[in-house]
């Protein structure tokens, strides 16, 4: 498959209130425009997740973190970008992910799990009401010199009775080979606790590891080694800690950031990774190359209007008339998230193939 990279002609936008130190931020003149831009949070957006009501697929909410120290929070948005619920205050909540079908004291619930970096904990809330079920939080990286949890992705074991859910957590700094910790999330009489089951994850010493994504159906976990590349491992502990591949090492302007998985079918689709300083997303085949599922070569770069995107999430189910093929949600400077119609992203990908 031939790879063609979009040649960007830049339009400079003055965003002094949105970028650190009043810097100029650039977006491409041909950048995709969001269908929806959310209401602003008080401080600094970081990472989104998407929840679809399993009993009514027309009910969809986007979750997003506001990562301020002491006064941060977790926000719930409707499909018009309006804030409809929130959990505040949280102490520097970084990343968020969701999982379905957690058995809580005999009741099946969906959960959102957030890294609370300032407290060295992960927090667990039911969806969509955002009720805490963690007795104040689950400590992570206990006994480690460096803790500061940042990234998180939830893995649901497909062959487990009762949908066993695990949290894969990254931290601000850590040792190569054990940068990430993996925890069973366990119900203990209506309170969720964590049990560490794994330490893994190479680090090449670029900047840090934050963005993590799990592909439940194919059984893989991906994480961004900022300034270096995207690492791929098996998500299941019992498959071992062998690194399967590193890709995208030459495709980014600077930082490798948010990762999203878009599922076209059960086994095909795209790995979407934020090229943060280029205000674009690099697109890789989810299924890999023919004959090699661990060969992920960039097939497109899609410029977007989101500025310096940290976190992203994608979904492929139809969501009303605005998003009939699903959407990509991207954090943007300016204290907001963008909702992009997947059709526009797919059109850009098709042009490059």
Automatic annotation (TrEMBL):
Pfam families: Phytase (PF02333). It comes from the Bacteria. Keywords: Signal. Residues 1-25 form the signal peptide. The keyword Signal applies. Residues 22-349 form the BPP domain. One of its GO terms (molecular function) is inositol hexakisphosphate 3-phosphatase activity. SUPFAM superfamilies: Thermostable phytase (3-phytase). This is Phytase.
